[in-house]
Amino acid sequence: MHGPASPGWLLVALCAATGAYCLLRMRSTVEEQRRSAGGEALMGFGMAAMAVPAAVVSPPSWAWPLYAVVFGTAALRALWAARTSAHHLHHLVGAAAMVYMAVVMATSSGHRGGHGSASGVPLLTGVLLLYFMGYVLLSGVRLIPVAAGGGAVGWSDRPELARACRLSMGIAMVAMLIAL
Description:
This protein is mainly α. It has one domain. The protein is 68% helix and 0% strand. The protein has helices at residues 5-25, 31-50, 63-81, 87-107, 122-142, 159-179. The longest helix is centred in the N-terminal third of the chain and has 21 residues, at 5-25. It is globular. The termini are close together.
């Protein structure tokens, strides 16, 4: 997105690390965790790519429409998966927000690959900000420690780490929407 390079790189690192952990979660023995981890990995890496500071790397003009298509496809998949799991509704909102940001960046009048002077529809941006701020607060509350179960748990089956990743991506989404 646009703005100072240091916070942008921190956002890139946070999203890429979250995406990498979500890839690890895809090895889980719990089917629902594997299913949601793939979508979350896509979101993490996609957010990392979109957050690269324009002052450092200006994306080609075809990048923003490509993001819109990729996340539009992810939104359709989340819509289909929402039939069986309410958690996928959040994936739908997240993917739709990514499509929205990609379209705004593609149609912006800036001369630096869409990073220049992007601004979306203020009402839609505000609604998305409110949703993700609420999601961040709810995710933070869900991090309150729960009694530990018995036995050793692998890295891909740690629910508290999955919650922390979701919290991180929610915070990153708020930062990206504010920068929009």
